Amino acid sequence: MDLEDLQTFVEVADAGGVSPAARRLGVSKSIVSRRLFRLEAELGIQLLARTTRGAALTEAGVTFREHAARVCAEMEAAREAILPSGELRGLLRIAAPLSFGPTHLAPVFAELARRHPLLHVHAYYSDRFVDIVGEGFDCAVRVGHLTDSNLIARRVVPFHGLLVASPEYIREHGAPETPDELLTHQALMQGTETWRLTDGDRAIGVHPQGRFKADNGSALVAAAVAGLGIASLPDFLVADHLASGALVAVMTRYPVPEAGIYVVRPPGQHPPRKILVLTELLIEHFG
């Protein structure tokens, strides 16, 4: 039984389809399909039921996937054990935010590739919410507050958010003092999000309204500097503008709760060492 066929089956089972598994493995869909056919032919049983929406495990596939995943994990551990100390190889696909990644994360990814010449590092930058399992990523770096999910997360570093506006906006519209007053102001948002604030030990959720929206943090910074409204942004995005006076903090009596930068990965008992090394390198860089 070919180990490559087993690994391909596990990837398809976890990703939910041939296409995302092919992206994750860095091969064509025809190669993935050929490996699956070969494995099913050797076992004499159907492991996956192909549908228009992807691939679902059969009852036999569910059982076989657990055994196949353990075999693949053990072989990966065995390979790492005999490699020269610290050496990584293979492909690491990382999803990262566009507002933060090219400036703050890209140097870390480059350093990872420099330290490990046999490792292929593919970084994809986007501020949209990426389905790392469905789209075939090994991990993602996420900034902010994590939503509940079955993904496994490790915090790299904490950071704080701020409500900010330009001095011009405040001169024209005034500065809100309470969460209720905030609702009367123009908010600069990514979508229809809830802004989180704190009042002592009490958490407050505010649903602001506004006419300017962008799916990129840097674009929201530019809108705030232009005087279009109030934005809730990470401190590292607005620090220079606060220092220059182009932006000022508002409603500091109701601070934004502490958030963080996280590395998230699909569920699994044994995280690949390349993700552990990336996480430690990020902690080293930001720490």
Automatic annotation (TrEMBL):
Domain of life, per lineage: Bacteria
One GO MF term attached to the UniProt entry: DNA binding
Alphabetized PROSITE patterns for the sequence: HTH_LYSR
Keyword field: DNA-binding, Transcription, Transcription regulation
Residue span(s) of domain HTH lysR-type: 1-58
Keyword Kinase: no
SUPFAM superfamilies reported in the protein's UniProt record: Periplasmic binding protein-like II, Winged helix' DNA-binding domain
Family indicated by similarity: Belongs to the LysR transcriptional regulatory family.
Name under which the protein is recorded: DNA-binding transcriptional LysR family regulator
Native species: Pseudoxanthomonas sacheonensis
